[in-house]
Amino acid sequence: MNIIISNSSQEAIYEQIERQIKSLIIKGDLSAGDNLPSIRSLAQELQISVITTKRAYEELERDGFIETVPGKGSFISGQNKELIREKRLKMIEESLAQAVCEARDLNLSLNDLKKMLSILYEEERL
């Protein structure tokens, strides 16, 4: 599992870990039943605190992406991929709704907002 931590990111380190593991699950790179590295070994590999890695795993478990079996480790949950996709779509909708609110507060037109979204979307692909 290749997790990359960016020190320049505005995102907290535990959120970066959580997001990247979720992405691996959605893409199918991690499948139901796959074993995640232990909290301690991942923390050691990433050279971060065990507390940070534990927080990432707790968030993943709370959202149903992983299951932890005491004494055995953490495993990718057998949760339905469609349900996971729906959760992510809901998160996108919430983020877009917030962006629309802020655009309205600035009297930004829908066309200008669409242009901004297109530019950001295309930049991410490069």
From TrEMBL:
Gene3D superfamilies (UniProt xref): Winged helix-like DNA-binding domain superfamily/Winged helix DNA-binding domain
Keyword annotations from UniProtKB, A to Z: DNA-binding, Transcription, Transcription regulation
Domain HTH gntR-type: 11-79
Keyword hit for Transcription: yes
SMART domains according to UniProt: HTH_GNTR
UniProt-recorded Gene Ontology molecular function terms: DNA binding; DNA-binding transcription factor activity
Origin: domain of life: Bacteria
Protein name listed in UniProt: HTH-type transcriptional repressor YtrA
Species of provenance: Oxobacter pfennigii
